[in-house]
Each structure stands twice: as structure tokens, then as C-alpha cells.
Write a structure and sequence with these properties.
Blueprint (H helix, E strand, L loop, with lengths): L4 E2 L9 H9 L22 H15 L5 E6 L2 H14 L9 E6 L2 H10 L4 E7 L18 E7 L1 E2 L4 E2 L11 E4 L16 E5 L10 E6 L16 H6 L9 H17 L1 H22 L3 E2 L11 E6 L4 H17 L2 E2 L10 E4 L6 H16 L2
Parallel strand pairs: 1-13, 3-4, 3-5, 5-8, 8-9
Antiparallel strand pairs: 2-10, 6-7, 9-10, 11-12, 12-14
Helix pairs in contact: 1-6, 2-6, 3-4, 6-7, 7-9
The structure holds pyridoxal-5'-phosphate.
The site of pyridoxal-5'-phosphate has 12 residues, from helix 3.
């Protein structure tokens, strides 16, 4: 078996022991004589799976008892609508509410653009002036804000909030799709956390929402049932059929993480991997990180050629991605909107993957 090092921003590499366990249990999970994919979500066989997944997530993230954990569908993108609808939607004919958004990249902006359909969402701080290469100072919360929304790790541009902003009594909502479980996070600082699973948690198709109890139950009466947090919370994520197989794989990923020593242990590994790669970029003659040091992501590391001639640069980027792939280092192209290269090094990427990338880069740079 030859496994590649997959630097994809998502869907991304999963830990090999997780894939092997899932393969072993594919046709007979837990002695049930069936695959998890074939189980009724309401059966005695599936119930322990979803319960175990939630319990492990609570344990690993230290989720307080006054928060619900929901396993939903629709990706992180559906949360761009559900958050403003549930926290800020109003009955027809009543004045609209307002919310603060901080624009730190393409996903953050998408969240704000979607929110204005339901609430007066204004961008109170932005790093767009410098191509999103830094994290702006957090604005002071305003009285009457229903919430403040941030994107804790910006997958495309490779920035992260190194410190969680203090929004006082205004609930802080964070998209943690590309950094969940990558380093310790104090859940009690947030009103809502949400993440698409396909980076640090499992396969695409499941979205995890962690929501404080007092923020549940405020959706206006016209809200479609499937978009209401209160219904999903009351039904234990089983109002309709949940993404059963995804929840099962998330459970296996969480078991793997717990065996490794949990979030503190993986955070140490993530820091080592990031230090190694940023350290290489600092010394590289031909590539550099466009991101301000204080804002650098541990998970997504964009890097661009120093070459200033546009045609030559394009040529370098094309050859880099192709030649790296030929050596089993795949998905290193930057996002189509920003170009360059990007190495996404989520929890499942071993340090050997980063070492192999650096070895390749040394060789590649030698030929430039
Ligand atoms: C930070 C962030 N938010 C939202 C999304 C969109 O997620 P989804 O495709 O699950 O809707 C992504 C996708 O990569 C992301 O990185």
C-alpha cells in the first residue's frame, strides 16, 4: 500500500488507524452483522455510536454542561444562514436586529453576506486592505448586537486569531471549521461554535454545532423546521436522519485523538509541524509566507514564489504542484481565488509529511 501525503484544505487526510478500523468494521460493525451505513439511526446499534461521539467531543473540548452539541448537515455554509436566522431573525413586520461581523477572509465575508438576508450585519473590522494577511483589532461590542461573528482560522489565507476577542455580554459566534481540536479552546468564551467536519473531524457531510443553551429557542415562527436549533436540540440531532456514517467516523477520529493524549498533545505536534515549515520558509531563497507573523495559522500555510515576473511565477507554481504530486505530495495548489501554494497540515498530517515537503522543496529550489 502506498499512501500519499495529502495537503488538501478539505476534505482532508484522515488518520490511517481510523480508516483501517472503519474498513475492518465495514461489513460488520460491533457484531451487529451490518455496516454503520445500513443501520437505522434510531436503532439500538446506532444510539451508542452517536452518544459516544458526543461524549468524546465534550471530553476533548471541555464543553460545559450548558452547551448542546448538534450533528447537522448543510456544511459550515448552512451555519452562515442558521446563525443569523436563529439569533437575529424577527417576526414579519417587526424591526430588524443587528450583528457584528469581522471580515478576515473569503469565508468570513461569505458569512456576513449571507447574514444580511436575516439581520443588519455590519462589518466592524476587516483585513481586506492588506489581502487578509493579518488579523484586525477586534472592535468594541455595541449595545444591541445580537452577536459578533468571527472566523477563528482562515483556511484560504492562512491566518488565525491567536487570542479570542472579548465581546463582553454580546455572544461570540465562531466558525472553527479549519481549527477545531487543533489547539486548546475555552468553549465558555463563545455563544456558538460551528465546524464542517471535513478537515479535522471526519468526512464531509456532517457539521458540528456547539451552542449555549440560552441562545436556543429564539428563531422566528416562519423558520423552516430543519433550520431551527431548538428542534435539532430537542430531538438530539434526530429530527430527521442525521449523517450517520460521518458521525461514526468522527467518533473514531476522536478516539484516535484521545489515545494520542487529546488536544494538548496534538497542539504540541501541530506547533512543531508549523514551526518546522514556517522556519523553512523564513530561510527559503525562492518562497515566502505572505502572512504577518502574529497571525499565522497552524493549520493552513500559504506560500508564494518571490519571483516577481507574473509569467515566470505562474510557471514555478505549476511545476511545483505537478512535481510535488509526482512524489506523492498532493493538493498543494493555493485556493483558486488567491493562487500560490498552500500546505494544509491538519491534525492527521504527521510531521513526516512536513519533512517530506521540505525535502522536496530543497530539491525543487536547487533546480530553479
Ligand atoms: C473556515 C471555513 N468556513 C466555511 C467553509 C465552508 O464549508 P462547507 O463547504 O462545509 O460549507 C470552509 C470550507 O473550506 C472553511 O474553510
Amino acid at each position: 500500500m502506498k499512501r500519499v501525503f495529502n495537503f488538501s484544505p478539505g476534505p482532508s487526510a484522515l488518520p490511517l488507524p481510523v480508516l483501517e478500523k472503519a474498513a475492518n468494521e465495514m461489513t460488520d460493525a460491533n457484531g451487529s452483522g451490518q455496516s454503520v451505513m445500513e443501520m437505522s439511526h434510531r436503532s439500538k446499534d446506532f444510539k451508542p455510536i452517536i452518544e459516544k461521539t458526543e461524549a468524546l467531543l465534550r471530553e476533548l473540548m471541555g464543553i460545559p454542561a450548558n452547551y448542546k452539541v448538534l450533528f447537522l448537515q448543510g456544511g459550515a455554509s448552512l451555519q452562515f444562514s442558521m446563525v443569523p436566522l436563529n439569533l437575529g431573525g424577527v417576526e414579519v413586520g417587526t424591526p430588524r436586529k443587528k450583528a457584528a461581523y469581522i471580515d478576515t477572509g473569503i469565508w468570513a465575508k461569505k458569512a456576513a453576506d449571507e447574514a444580511v438576508k436575516f439581520i443588519d450585519a455590519t462589518i466592524r473590522a476587516s483585513s481586506k486592505d492588506k489581502a487578509y494577511t493579518y488579523i484586525p483589532a477586534a472592535p468594541a461590542p455595541e449595545a444591541g448586537d445580537a452577536y459578533c461573528h468571527i472566523t477563528l482560522n482562515n483556511t484560504i489565507v492562512g491566518t488565525r486569531w491567536a487570542a479570542v476577542p472579548n465581546t463582553g455580554s454580546v455572544p461570540l459566534v465562531a466558525d472553527i471549521s479549519s481549527c477545531i481540536l487543533s489547539e486548546p479552546l475555552d468553549v465558555s468564551q463563545f455563544g456558538i461554535l460551528y465546524a464542517g467536519a471535513q478537515k479535522n473531524l471526519g468526512p464531509a457531510g456532517t457539521t458540528v454545532v456547539i451552542i449555549r443553551d440560552d441562545l436556543i429557542g429564539h428563531a422566528p415562527s416562519w423558520t423552516p423546521a430543519l433550520l431551527r436549533y431548538d428542534i435539532h436540540a430537542e430531538e438530539g440531532s434526530m429530527y430527521n436522519t442525521p449523517p450517520c456514517y460521518g458521525i461514526y467516523i468522527i467518533g473514531l477520529v476522536l478516539e484516535w485523538l484521545k489515545d494520542l493524549g487529546g488536544v494538548p498533545a496534538i497542539a504540541k505536534k501541530n506547533q512543531e509541524k508549523a514551526d518546522l515549515f514556517y522556519g523553512y520558509l523564513e530561510k527559503s531563497k525562492n518562497f515566502h509566507s505572505p502572512v504577518e507573523k502574529s497571525a499565522r495559522s497552524l493549520m493552513n500555510i500559504p506560500f508564494i514564489p518571490k519571483e516577481t515576473d507574473a509569467d515566470k511565477r505562474k510557471d514555478i507554481e505549476g511545476r511545483f504542484v505537478k512535481e510535488a504530486a509526482a512524489e506523492g505530495l498532493i493538493n498543494l495548489a493555493g485556493h483558486r481565488l488567491v493562487g500560490g501554494m498552500r500546505a494544509s497540515i491538519y491534525n492527521a498530517m504527521p510531521i513526516e509529511g512536513v519533512q517530506a515537503l521540505i525535502t522536496f522543496m530543497k530539491k525543487f529550489e536547487g533546480g530553479l
